[in-house]
């Protein structure tokens, strides 16, 4: 993985020379800085402005792709005419319409059942936060005191992991978050490929920018394209990295002004 800045002339020429760009952007850790709680990760107004400018650009299609639920994502970003993909790629909003990957009802019932069990076993651990996202559930531990983290993990491994292993769910480990979601062969990468097909009427250059730590991202699926990791994460499948969210916004401003 190389620093984007070190390869900039080549990458910039590829982008400027393309007839249409599909820009896929994660939300947390990419458009917003990581905050102590999910609620606090609000989108700064200048970032919303650059997304709005990009959304009106005739040669750029923008999709925000997140592990958050679709409705919450749309509310947080608040820019019309973007494509939104939520819940690990399983909920989509495009051209004013919602599409969903079919997830059997039994899977959703399992998410609810194990999610409520999870909430009850971590209830006494200060800072532990369980978020029911409909098609998935997250256990956030960013605010759990460091000396209690291994206790929390112990409870998770003892009480929850066996339930997950004997169910249709799987576990993803993210940035101070553990995600339980249906074990389906449809993740962010598949949603990205589906989107590329959808807009294939033009020659499309995909650019994916994300801070993926879970392995559920789209870097692997877009191996031929421009993939940019936020932060030099070891083991990332991205081709390039930028240092932080600030560099992402600089890149987006450049695209809005130059393409
Ligand atoms: O797919 P993404 O948009 O990158 O979402 C990944 C996770 O983002 C959120 O959690 C992360 O950001 C929070 C706010 O900055 C932070 O408090 C938390 O520690 C991070 O893990 C979101 O709440 C999760 O559901 C997503 O999986």
Automatic annotation (TrEMBL):
This is Trehalose 6-phosphate phosphatase. The gene is otsB. The keyword Glycoprotein does not apply. Pathway: Glycan biosynthesis; trehalose biosynthesis. Belongs to the trehalose phosphatase family. Removes the phosphate from trehalose 6-phosphate to produce free trehalose. It catalyses: alpha,alpha-trehalose 6-phosphate + H2O = alpha,alpha-trehalose + phosphate. It comes from the Bacteria. One of its GO terms (molecular function) is trehalose-phosphatase activity. It holds the Pfam family Trehalose_PPase. InterPro entries: HAD-like_sf, HAD-SF_hydro_IIB, HAD_sf, OTSB-like, Trehalose_PPase. NCBIfam families: HAD-SF-IIB (TIGR01484), T6PP (TIGR00685). Keywords: Hydrolase, Magnesium, Metal-binding. Its cofactor is Mg(2+). One of its GO terms (biological process) is trehalose biosynthetic process. Its EC number is 3.1.3.12.
């Amino acid at each position: 993985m190389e620093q984007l800045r070190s390869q900039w002339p080549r990458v910039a020429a590829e982008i400027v020379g393309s007839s249409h760009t599909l820009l896929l952007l994660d939300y947390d850790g990419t458009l917003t800085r990581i905050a102590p709680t999910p609620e606090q990760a609000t989108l700064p107004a200048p970032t919303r402005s650059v997304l709005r400018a990009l959304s009106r650009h005739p040669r750029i299609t923008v999709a925000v792709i997140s592990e958050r639920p679709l409705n919450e994502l749309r509310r947080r970003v608040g820019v019309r005419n973007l494509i939104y993909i939520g819940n690990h790629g399983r909920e989509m909003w495009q051209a004013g319409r919602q599409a969903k990957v079919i997830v059997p009802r039994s899977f959703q019932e399992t998410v609810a059942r194990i999610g409520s069990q999870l909430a009850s076993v971590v209830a006494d651990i200060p800072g532990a936060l369980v978020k029911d996202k409909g098609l998935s559930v997250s256990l956030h531990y960013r605010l759990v005191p460091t000396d209690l983290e291994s206790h929390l993990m112990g409870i998770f491994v003892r009480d929850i992991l066996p339930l997950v292993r004997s169910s249709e769910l799987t576990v993803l480990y993210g940035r101070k978050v553990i995600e339980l979601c249906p074990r389906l062969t449809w993740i962010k990468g598949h949603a990205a490929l589906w989107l590329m097909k959808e807009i294939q009427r033009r020659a499309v250059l995909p650019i994916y920018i994300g801070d993926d730590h879970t392995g559920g991202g789209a870097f692997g699926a877009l191996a031929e394209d421009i993939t940019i990791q936020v932060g030099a994460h070891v083991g990332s499948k991205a081709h390039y990295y930028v240092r932080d969210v600030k560099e992402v916004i600089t890149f987006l401003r450049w695209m809005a002004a130059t393409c």
